[in-house]
Amino acid sequence: MFNTTQLIDTSTLQGHGNNTTNCEKNDGFKYPLYSTVFSIVFVIGLITNVVSIYIFTCSLKLRNETTTYMINLVVSDLLFVFTLPLRVFYFINQNWPFGGMLCKVSVSLFYTNMYGSMLFLTCISVDRFLAIVYPFRSRMLRTKRNAKIVCTAVWVLVLSGSLPTGFLLESTKNDVNATYCFENFSSKQWKSHLSKVVIFIETVGFLIPLLLNICCSIMVLQTLRRPQTVSCGGRLNKKKILRMIIVHLLIFCFCFIPYNVNLVFYALVRTKTLTGCFAESVVRTIYPIALCIAVSNCCFDPIVYYFTSETIQNSIKRKSQVSNNYDVKFSEALQSESTSNLQCSLRSLKAKVFHNESSV
């Protein structure tokens, strides 16, 4: 990222010897944008993910491999959401008073959430693909034990990329003695370390998950076109699965494609591989907008939980059916009790009438 308001970089253009071009950049708009968007994401993300974790841990009795992936996705989202107030404070005051270690942790948790979300969403997509396309052959693979192993591998992979990125960041001070955070990677760091990290996270954390999500969705749709498509519980609800796939892909593409595509060009600019004032201006302008969109995935993930988890929906339906059955049985009991009382009263009245008639 880049330092405040107006920043002048000197770039040596290829083929021009010692000639230099001064590019004036004004990216001060990112501070009110970040503080506003991050505040909204914090409120919505905290509420929706706390509700989700309550449903998964307390309300939902039956758990399977799909809910295992979702619980890990919720944990990833909540870890990042808890750091957002610190980011909002920084972008409002443009000063980081919380120490260098907390700055490094906050940066690491951002990348942990970003690429953890993509990988866990991919796990959910692959799991649904196996359940629909290969429902019988995948039974041995789709177990809670294997899901836990996959989730552990995802955490190890994500942390191996996010922790080095965060801990490479060093807090620095500007002319007015304000401390920077989130935006002071040097060009030397980009050339020596961060460019390699970008290649790793873009390939493993973005490109491969994107291709897997698209391929799994296409194969599921092809399976749904077959008239004999069945599942363990009978005929598949094709509209429901189609809606699930569309929502899943839209959230994945909307949140992650703009940021990750722009990150490639951002890295090219910072390493001076891509030069020119126009290119730098476009990349630096798009970067804050794409970052805000990427952060919003914390708010959209609970939508995936609802459309993807058949277990949750069936659990809710079972609870409502039990409640309705209880109400029906209770009403029938009241009716039968009222009827029996009425019949008892009629018999008693009839006995009295006959008794009076016989005594006359």
Automatic annotation (TrEMBL):
It comes from Parambassis ranga. The chain crosses the membrane at residues 37-57, 69-92, 114-137, 149-169, 197-221, 241-266, 286-308. The keyword Cell wall biogenesis/degradation does not apply. Residues 48-305 form the G-protein coupled receptors family 1 profile domain. This is Lysophosphatidic acid receptor 6a. It comes from the Eukaryota. Belongs to the G-protein coupled receptor 1 family. GO terms for cellular component: plasma membrane. PANTHER family: G-PROTEIN COUPLED RECEPTOR (PTHR24232), LYSOPHOSPHATIDIC ACID RECEPTOR 6 (PTHR24232:SF3).
